């Protein structure tokens, strides 16, 4: 295996830069071609993700020939596939330009509105299985990326939302951890047996009745005590679990703000435009596969009721993304529109 160094990463991250020796050179060349104009590792990762999301989503694709590299065959011949193809390709491309990356599998819960949901349990089947990518940025940790076009981009808000984030229902995520604790601490009722052959036999019915009343009272008192104790323990557990969730969410928000604060204006505007596309998709305006940003803007602008014309925002984004020089107000118009659609 060979590693390609670019970022200054911890030694334990070097394994996430490994590539097969036989990886075709044109795969590496494509990754460098897509990212060469960008300076920040985050923007390079976004460029690769954007490129892959222009391919087609298809579950019925042929297997790679035995004499072909899987990633090379996907990028230069197929140009379509499902999550396994996209996550594998992005992982390889990121590593080839020196960004530590790993292929992640789990489950993504996307409600259709038809499920029979009871007691806050949501059905997760094999149909919800998914693969995506995590890239490592020194100082920020692992960040999710979604290269598969069929799925909405994860970015920061979607990938860390407590309601629909993949790690919440992943095979080793918070849900499994919680269920394991709950199972191992469940209360098992005990059975008390009264020995009718005790050496201290009662003399008459009155004594039997009195003894049984005492036994019953003692068992009842013990049961009530255990019930109160278990209820108290449950409340404590729920409280601690709530504190844990709040701590995790707070940590994620701080990490997100820290990352955004260190972006240069262009990088922040590109991230905000991706957030605009995500917000519009939630409102029913989804960018089609192969559709350019301007084509998408021309199609949906007349249906949007905002003070700023989305066509102007899309034009500003194209200049921010591709032009050397910007017009006055390009970055500001993207920021203002981003704030509007996020309300």
UniProtKB/TrEMBL annotation:
It comes from the Bacteria. The keyword Zinc does not apply. The keyword Transmembrane helix applies. InterPro entries: Bact_TGase-like, Papain-like_cys_pep_sf, Transglutaminase-like. Pfam families: Transglut_core (PF01841). Keywords: Membrane, Transmembrane, Transmembrane helix. Residues 75-149 form the Transglutaminase-like domain. The chain crosses the membrane at residues 233-254. PANTHER family: PROTEIN-GLUTAMINE GAMMA-GLUTAMYLTRANSFERASE (PTHR42736:SF1). This is Transglutaminase-like domain-containing protein. It comes from Caldanaerobius fijiensis DSM 17918.
